[in-house]
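Worked example 3 (structure in, sequence out).
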């Protein structure tokens, strides 16, 4: 077995700044400078995407200290349309955050959700494509810590 520790999760977004703001405003994730701006032959070879260029940032996840893992949120300069979201599509299912009270924190999640999206957009295909589908159980699980899930869109988050 190799010596390893968890480093980061990479999310590809259509609006990396908007998705980063969502995680900082709601969960208290902290930006880890500098913002990233990559392009060139090495990135093209590494991604297999001709002309690849991306921008984004790392956000430190809450509760795991100054050397804890991050969310790496990137936006490519050119991205194809994604597949329609489906809960049973292979890929990222969701990211869960442990919280003291699902009931209390669910209210905060839904308030931010309402502030960010219009009524007609909240449950629309546009919202699901944005990768901002929120899974907020009504009550705490008797099996362990309460968690709020921020669901992806199948093979990735496309905010």
């Amino acid at each position: 077995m190799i010596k390893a520790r968890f480093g980061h999760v990479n999310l590809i977004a259509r609006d990396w700044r908007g998705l980063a703001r969502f995680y900082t405003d709601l969960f208290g994730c902290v930006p880890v400078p500098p913002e990233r701006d990559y392009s060139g032959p090495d990135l093209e070879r590494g991604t297999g995407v001709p002309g690849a260029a991306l921008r984004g940032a790392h956000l430190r996840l809450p509760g795991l200290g100054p050397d804890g893992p991050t969310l790496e949120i990137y936006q490519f300069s050119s991205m194809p349309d994604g597949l329609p979201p489906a809960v049973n599509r292979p890929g990222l299912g969701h990211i869960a955050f442990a919280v003291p009270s699902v009931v209390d924190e669910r209210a905060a999640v839904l308030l931010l959700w309402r502030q960010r999206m219009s009524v007609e957009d909240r449950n629309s295909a546009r919202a699901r494509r944005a990768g901002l589908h929120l899974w907020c159980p009504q009550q705490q699980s008797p099996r362990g810590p309460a968690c709020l899930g921020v669901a992806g869109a199948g093979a990735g988050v496309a905010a």
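Notes: Residues 122-133, 136-146, 152-159 have pLDDT under 50 and may be disordered. The radius of gyration is 16 Å.
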